[in-house]
Amino acid sequence: MGGKAPLVTVEGLRVTAGGGRSVIVDDVSFSIARGEVVALIGESGSGKTTIALALMGYARAGCTIAGGRVRVGGVEPIGLAPAALARLRGRTVSYIAQSAAAAFNPAQRIMAQVVENALIHRLRSRAAAEARARALFRALALPDPDGVGALFPHQVSGGQLQRLMAAMALITDPALVILDEPTTALDVTTQIEVLRAFKRVVREQGTTALYVSHDLSVVAQMADRIIVLRDGVVQESAPAAQLLTAPAHPYTRSLLAAAAPAPRQAVALPAGAAPLLRVSGLVAGYGPPDARGLPAVPVLHDIAFSIAPGSVLGVVGESGCGKSTLAQVIAGLLPAARGSITLDGEALAPRAAGRTREQLRRVQIVFQMADMALNPAHSVRRILARPLQFYHGLRDAALARRVAALLDMVRLPQALADRLPAGLSGGQKQRLNLARALAAEPALILCDEVTSALDTVVGAAILDLLAELRRELGVAYLFISHDISTIRALCDQVMILYAGRCVERGGRQVMQMAPMHPYTDLLLSSVPELRPGWLDGMSATHLAEAAGGLTRAAARLACPFQPRCAVRLEDVCDRVPPPVQPLSKGASILCHRGEAELLRAQATAAPLHASAD
Amino acid sequence: MNAGITRLRPATAAGLLIVLFWAAMAAFGPLLAPHADGGVMSAQVFDAASRAAPLGTDYLGRDMLTRILIGARYTVGVAAVATGLASLVGTTLALCAATVGGWTDAVLSRLLDALISLPSLLFALVVVASVGSSIPMLVATAAVIYVPGAYRTVRALAVNIVAMEFVKVARARGEGTLYLMRAEILPNIVLPVLTDFGLRFIYVVLLLSGLSFLGLGIQPPYADWGSLVRENIEGLAYGAPAVIMPALAIATLTIGVNLLVDGLAGRRGGGDGR
């Protein structure tokens, strides 16, 4: 740290909740030198945000800073008088939160909100503050830096709003910036441009930053030093490169292992078995149908695939690509406008109400938000008993036995049976959701982002459970996720969706072998890697593609990826629907470009993700 | 049970006591009344409180305490039955509309919106004027007037629950509409529905009292508290307790129910105390 006094020192920080009954942060000490970026990493409940807030002298409702010293640039925020605290928070320390959409006032123009802090603290005149804001917009690589200030928050994309929030935080030239999970809510391709913008600004301005995140790969790109937290206690603190390559603490090692999940044991499938589920020509969407019977807001276009008994089809795509809609259509919650769904060769009615109980039993659905999918008024026992009564007519002792067996199957303790869902942890809730689906003894479970809301270690345990249930029960999954590493870990077949179209479909290897659809290529190279310097080494092609983002106008083009695509054919891709093209690697893609052309284009950019797998 | 009451806030506990008191009076009032026949017991009309008539006498010289105790049955009972009917019908229709959605929801909502547009007191006056006043008639009229309000409140609560994923899971399982309404949705909105019931009860008490005050409610020789106020309105000039006491009874009942309802609503907002 060059002998200079550190900007931030934290000594023996202790934060308690519930009047001292539970300790959230216990004896945490660290320091941040000027110009250094330190990352706090840990799972939910590890106290990372609590520590970050303590640097601003703030404890959330119900929490108390019970001990320890914090110094930020010669000021001790804990116990500071309100006026001095307001000055500290406005000028010395600024905070970038996870949800930019919640941090902006939808009724005010962006510029007014960005410069507000500088004006309140009388740091600059309005004209000077706006000039500074425009300089920051430029530094953050925002499109149209001179015009964006006049827009309202809903008129810019999520990634842009996140960068605008960074401008808001930097307008007072703070000594310390706290970034609290600033890219967690973003898609991977959007995350890249935001991370790059943050990194560039931090480097140019020499900002001192505390980066709070659960994602080691993201932190690897940003931080000089990483502090690993668990249950409010520091486990390990080391320079980023050292911590990632030679982790000393077992907990760090388990985090690293969970960040790059190993493929679960594959299951040998009987060759040539009739497909369990076959979907063809599926078109679905929301809103009233038009004259041709197509929905007002189309979401899925001409989707076709089949799932063999006991196999796993992974569906990957970014938010809004229609992957959750696909699950709802198959479950009969949203009737399709066109196309057919057959289960074991029998056509399924578009609505659940039109299907037989036996058909319903064979297809079960598990949702992402584990707590929203459990009725808060029903006990665990009642939640599991209902499908057993409904489908199998079990009663009394047989019912109780089966409930107990299901709890065992998903490794939930029997003592939980009489609790309400509110008394379960996030991972336990998701296990209960799985157990409810298993109660029906289904042939296919639709898993809609089932691990996305969970911590990586908890999510990895759910993946293990899914793999094991598949081996033992022979159940097939339609596994929907935005997270490519979980798809890689579990799936036999993969389908990649972009703007409701299936751009690439094939075996697990489609994600490892060139050539691929240009979007698949972008998506795969956008997944952060654990190695520092990955972000700086991204190819210009991918950066340009990542910067675009899907626009409403592009979604109506013959190929919605055309405006972003590096190998687009002008006047062809935007007008002529791309053909389904088989590739020699055993996949099919939706693209005008031939295999050789794609191979050549991706070979030039390839060194980047050649090492990905 | 004891622990439950001590955990209540004082205002809620007071509300609960008042409501229980009037409910007991509605049930057992005639047995407790000092002059059970309710006949004339004194030559003094509009008399002040005395040992024989603790709340004074009315315009015919009847014991006021007896009149109020007997009247409790009409005020509390008729209002409770009418509100119960309104809440039951309103809640059932609302759950049905929210669960089925689509056209069912649209048709039900527009029909009940049309009912809301009728001014309630005018509607009651027209019905009573055309059909005549009787207890079943009053109950039915008050129920019809308050169904749309209950429907609106419950539907607003239910549509939020219907959008939750556990309802989608139940639908995908193939559950029928009745099961969804009864087992999945209702248990999650029961507290606000009870709160709404309490508030609506107050409105019905006030509506019935208002009708009785106009002479269109409960007909003599029976009397609810509203008609007691009207009968004895001349006593106002003499400062007789006969006109104040039934008014006080109405006031305590509405305040009691209000306190209790506030307590229920507060518990809902305060998260689970478990």
Question: How many domains would you count in the coordinates of chain A?
Answer: 3
CATH architecture descriptor name of the largest domain in chain A: 3-Layer(aba) Sandwich
CATH topology annotation of the largest domain in chain A: Rossmann fold
The first-to-last residue Cα distance of chain A is 36 Å
Strand content of chain A: 15-25%
**Beta-strand content of chain B:** under 5%
> What order do the SSEs of chain B take from the amino end to the carboxyl end, as H and E?
HHHHHHHHHH
Overall CATH class of the largest domain in chain A: Alpha Beta
The SS-based structural class of chain A is: alpha/beta
> If you compute it from the alpha carbons, what radius of gyration of chain A comes out, rounded to the nearest whole angstrom?
26 Å
CATH class of chain B: Mainly Alpha
In one word, what is the shape of chain A?
A: globular
- Based on DSSP secondary structure assignment, what is the total number of beta strands of chain A? 21
Short description:
The complex is a heterodimer of chains A (613) and B (274). Chain A is of the alpha/beta class and 613 residues long.
Ordered list of secondary-structure elements with their pairings:
The complex is a heterodimer of chains A (613) and B (274).
Chain A: E1 8-17, E2 22-32, E3 37-41, H1 48-54, E4 63-72, H2 82-92, E5 93-96, H3 100-103, H4 110-120, H5 126-139, H6 158-170, E6 176-180, H7 188-205, E7 208-213, H8 216-222, E8 225-230, E9 233-239, H9 240-245, H10 250-259, E10 277-289, E11 295-307, E12 312-316, H11 323-331, E13 338-343, E14 346-347, H12 357-362, E15 363-366, H13 380-392, H14 396-409, H15 426-439, E16 444-448, H16 456-473, E17 476-481, H17 484-490, E18 493-498, E19 501-507, H18 518-526, H19 540-548, E20 580-582, E21 588-590, H20 595-605, H21 607-610
Parallel strand pairs in A: 3-7, 3-8, 5-6, 6-7, 12-17, 12-18, 15-16, 16-17
Antiparallel strand pairs in A: 1-2, 1-4, 8-9, 10-11, 10-13, 13-14, 18-19, 19-21, 20-21
Helix pairs in contact in A: 4-5, 4-6, 6-7, 7-19, 10-16, 13-14, 13-15, 14-15
Chain B: H1 2-7, H2 10-32, H3 64-100, H4 102-116, H5 120-131, H6 135-162, H7 165-173, H8 177-213, H9 225-231, H10 241-269
Helix pairs in contact in B: 2-3, 2-10, 3-4, 3-6, 3-8, 4-6, 5-6, 6-8, 8-9, 8-10, 9-10
